Amino acid sequence: MPEYQTHEHDVLVIGAGGAGLRAAIEASATGASVGLVCKSLLGKAHTVMAEGGIAAALANVDDRDNWRVHFADTMRGGQYVNNWRMAELHAKEAPDRVRELEAWGAMFDRTKDGRILQRNFGGHRYPRLAHVGDRTGLEMIRTLQDHGIHQGIDVHMECTIVRLLKDGDRVAGAFGYERERGRFKLFRAKAIVLATGGVGRAYKITSNSWEYTGDGHTLAYDAGADLMDMEFVQFHPTGMIWPPSVCGILVTEGVRGEGGILKNSEGRRFMFDDIPENYRTQTADNEDEGWRYTQGDKSARRPPELLTRDHVSRCIVREIKEGRGTPHGGVYLDISWIKSRMSNAAEHIKKKLPSMYHQFKQLADIDITREPMEVGPTTHYIMGGVRVDSDTQMSTVPGLFAAGECAAGINGANRLGGNSLSDLLVFGKRAGEHASKYAAGAKAGSIDAEEVDRAAQAAVAPFERGTSGEGPYQVQYALQELMQANVGIVRNEADMRKALDCLERFRTRTRRVGVGGHREYNPGWHAALDLHNLLTVSEAITRSAIERRESRGGHFREDYPDKDPSFGAFNLIVRKTADGGMDVSRATIPPMPQELASIIESMK
Amino acid sequence: MVNTATFHIWRGDAGGGRFAEFSTGVSDGMVVLDAVHRIQAEQANDLAVRWNCKAGKCGSCSAEINGHPRLMCMTRLNQLDLTAPVTIEPMRTFPLIRDLVTDVSWNFAAKKAIKPFKPIPADGDGTWRMAQVDAERVQEFRKCIECFLCQDVCHVLREHHMFDEFVGPRHLVYAAALEMNPIDAENRARDLETRHGIGYCNITKCCTKVCPEGITITDNAAIPLKERVVDQLYDPVARLLRVFQHR
Q1: Is any Cβ of chain B less than 8 angstroms from the Cβ of A116?
Q2: Domains and CATH numbers, chain B
Q3: pTM for the whole thing?
């Protein structure tokens, strides 16, 4: 029988990025004993990579902004399949969550009158993103971390959960391993919050780190919870493409917010060529107006580079496909051109975009104050995730909550830049609060020892096959190639059917994966265990994408290139069937209250 | 650039270790972490290495490359002499867990001992006003990605192992960010002198030299904090002045 350490908490939070930390802080503040599991060291989660800012209608820079405009922007960006209640709560509560960060020590850039400065971003009508240069995520995670370590939270670093345990219908605990010694850990908890982030590692070109293998999605799915909107994956328009080793690393949308423009190899500013109907009235129709917008002219409309990410990505793909790409197969993103508009341009760029300046200088030998960057789309974010109650963030499994990227709803078919960090704060807090409340009214569930044994045996199986089995990285790379090629930015049914067949074969290969060495800090072993999650989310993405026979937001079908209003009436739900199969069904979106509907109508 | 390169990578654990030699293909633009990943995928699945963002933002992949403390993800192979083997070792100041992974938990404990941020009362509208120039002074310190390379080179820690007496440059930067925050009300001067051992820092600037974020650790954080400690605890004139000011 395998050995394991046991820990007990009222609330166990799995994931220690923005959402997990915020949930843990809240649950702890409301009196629960809290355990926080981090896949990496504390403070290294992907939130640290967020660059542009936190979207919140503080109205510090433009007093026309308020929660209604933010709500309407979020719904428009999400193509109206968002959970409207979550979009409402998010828009209303984000400003308080940002101010709270300041009260915990965050140091945002300031306006001239000393308040929190806000910047322009894609799809946001007014300058709305509270930021710190282009390292807002670092500021946010460090603030939460430095506040959180004094709240009596038990932090379990470098620990990965492989299975959730249930007592009847409700969640009762979690089982996993710690990396350092490879020992197993059993967590007993009355409530569990999933805050595990995304699935970017299912794709070859991604801005996500090794951690983002769909863990929370898969843990929830295997525990019987519903997933939703899995077809909606966000391909960020601007990732680095050269040199090959940095391909996929993010180039912040802030570059465009500060006036950066996109050009093809013919020097044409191609974003003016295709402006979607529902954004036409909000978008500049000439270059001068676009520039004035980025410089704070309230009478100007935003440049087409700041259209939503799904649209900008598709325009870039079109340029490349039609032979107007750069030598390395991307397009040009140019901020250096602003020197024709301002005298201190180089200094200005370095001050506003310091990380971008260093990133290109150090990794690509490019000085962005002098020459354009080469960029192309990179897998960045998944709008889909665990289906949750809008107010409490509880999943369809009692006691199991989810927040942040691994939860679905707020973003619909496409997320606006900056809405992620605010989502983490708003719904992280709610998840922590309600998980704590749930735990207070619940008794500890019982744990099935046999199930724990089975989980432990499955976890060590790759060692039994040893190095005679297939290497874990080879299967992972093959899966990433497959998803990139067949279920990427431009999709069609035939390619996706092929992908499903391949995924089935990868399942068989995964069962043969073996690793050598021992359990102490063995990355090969960890990669082997992550494969199940990658396969599960890849299948969920593919099956949902086949089912949605239209194009909407991040989901583009070349065989159904138009938006179909009948598909705008529902979300797709993914559920595990009794025999272990994956079922995709439709859930009708409930009608919006009149108040919200009229907000959207008035801002169309 | 040559097509293959040789790497001497430290393999071992707390019980001891040795350099293992690997050769792997290299291409344009590769960084040290890419080479380590390639070796891990093709030759040594269990080679232990910590990493996350691969863009110099998370501070996980600290190591000593040809003897220099660096982030593996931000060290380009074309900056190194590839005609000779490239050595990659774990940070030597911290206990080794395995291969390139060290036990940095002491840093988390040391930080926790520093008094946290305590805001002054907010303005009437519940927020605070501050000038960008004041924010920037603190923002330099808040760029810190907690890679702990400064801790790795600090001789007080590396040579003298004074982990119980001195918090190290990273945490002087942390304390400086708090102390210079215009809306922080806490006073950490006494703690800095006693518990945090600021006196052990003798401003050799090794930390500043290795900081991948370019934070001027010694000049902008350590020295001003030292001055603050001296001003507050030892300057008789200032002490006298304060007595009168407080009347």
Answers
A1: yes
A2: 4-102 (3.10.20.30), 105-245 (1.10.1060.10)
A3: 0.96
